[in-house]
Design brief:
- The chain has 107 residues and is an alpha+beta fold.
- The chain has a single domain, classed as Rossmann fold, CATH 3.40.50.
- A 4-stranded mixed beta sheet has the order 1-2-4-3.
- A hairpin with a 6-residue loop joins strand 3 and strand 4.
- It starts with 17 loop residues before the first strand and ends with a strand.
- The mean pLDDT is 93.
Length: 107
């Protein structure tokens, strides 16, 4: 096993080096989504999956403090990831009231 520290714009992994990327409660922090999305895309092997677990941003449902903290919610995240060339494999309900889980695949 090897630990790799990413940067704000890159996961710092070699191209085609991983089967799965899992991110938890971090997607909403991405400051420059196109760069990090491209980095994840390149790091995944073809057919590889990116599992995103994060807080959703739903007006009237999400607590105000969390709404202010979140850059983006599920719908916006899905839109960004699809625009980066990923395919949406599925959305999963895992019983978390304020979070979502989506699985994308690199074609």
């Amino acid at each position: 096993m090897r630990v790799v520290q990413s940067t704000a714009d890159s996961v710092e992994l070699p191209e085609g080096s991983v089967d799965v990327v899992f991110s938890s409660d971090t997607y909403h922090h991405f400051e420059n989504p196109p760069l990090i999305l491209d980095s994840v895309y390149r790091a995944l092997k073809p057919g590889g999956r990116w599992v995103i677990l994060d807080f959703d941003r739903v007006p009237g449902v999400t607590p105000p403090g969390l709404m202010e903290h979140l850059r983006i919610g599920k719908a916006g995240a899905i839109e960004e990831v699809l625009a980066a060339g990923f395919r949406l494999e599925r959305e999963a309900d895992i019983g978390l009231a304020q979070s979502y889980l989506v699985i994308f695949q690199r074609p």
